[in-house]
Amino acid sequence: MKQELSKFSFQFFKELRKKSCEVLSRNEISIYDYNKKFNTITSVNISHDSNGFHYMKDKGDANDFAQTYSRAKHGSMKDIIALSEMVVSTFIAQFDDTQSSIYQLFQGLEIDSDTLVLLVPGSRNIESSSNVIFDIALRKINVFLSRSHYPTIVNVKLPRLDPPVENYAALSQEEREEISKVRDHILPGEEFYKNRNIHLFFGDDVLITGATADKVVSSALQQGAKSFHSIYAAVVDPVLVDRMPEIESVLNTSCLKGGICQTFIDSVCNEQLIPVMKTYNILLDPSNYGELTKKIAYIPTKVLETLYVYAMNNGYYNQSKYKGSLLYLEKYLSLKDAINVSVE
């Protein structure tokens, strides 16, 4: 029994990634083969060089995709929908390939006895872009599965009690693992899997180091999950990530660089807005306070009201870093008679 559990340990998957990355770096396997080792499906595989981002398969220019991803990461609904459509197309395409692990999994499932669960990274009262992407994508995927007489997938967001680390995208593999021990998602326990045939999917917008995914798969398989797959809009070249884990930050800022620019206002701050965590990394950051005061009039009042309510729900009012900008936003909305800030 101990031997079986060790096979599913976090360390097992960490070592498997390390060895697979080494083989990939020697061009002995393709990125397709790398992903297959982890039952990973992805819409695109991308890397980066002096010319920016490119697709790994044909070296084609991927800078437009990177900019779409950057806008989506900060809350642009148009771009979130674009990424969700990519996820849907990629998932459904698996059923055209009888050799794919997804296709083979579904051939043996029973609607009455098998349960399919999608776990996505959680948030603390504010969604992440990956939450919204998979909310949209899963509804369409489930329509396809239902019409094809397959079991549908239950969407479960992993709870998170502490706010995520803001500079996570710039951290090394080791730093990510240390932080995850005390500030990461709360994973389902034994009772979640007990007496159920649960087949697990993990969904996220991008795979960088694999630290989160490997923690989820390790826990799931040790607790009794029958199978595990992960689904991404993008996988970043593991060889590049190994020497440059901060590439995630480069990808996140490939379009929106961190300032309250016109692109941020046009793409994010509109009537379709569902605020995500990174929306506030720009809107409320102290370094952008001057820009906020100059450009706040260009953001619709209804949008500002939504941003304010979500920020208050996430406890930003009590965070010294964000409080100055949030107080300014509160005063602005009060003068517009958009909110009542009096406390009885």
Please give a structural write-up.
The chain folds into two domains: about 1-250, no CATH class; about 260-335, no CATH class. Helix content is about 50%, strand content about 15%. It has 17 helices and six strands. The protein has a six-stranded mixed beta sheet, sandwiched between helices. The longest helix has 19 residues, at about 130-145.
Strand content: 5-15%
Helix content: 40-55%
The side-by-side strand order for the widest beta sheet comes to 2-1-6-5-3-4
Which radius of gyration do the C-alpha atoms yield? 21 Å
Number of domains: 2
Which structural class best describes the helix and strand composition?
A: alpha/beta
Order of helices and strands: HHHEEHHHEHEHHEHEHHHHHHH
Biggest β-sheet, characterized?
6 strands, mixed
User: Strand tally, please?
Assistant: 6
Task: Specify the overall morphology.
Answer: globular
Distance between the termini: 60 Å
Q: Uncertain runs with pLDDT below 50, 5 residues or more?
A: 1-5
Mean pLDDT, to the nearest integer, reads 90
Number of helical segments?
17
Name a few traits of the molecule.
344 residues; alpha/beta; 6-stranded mixed beta sheet; 17 helices; 6 strands; 14% strand; globular; disordered N terminus
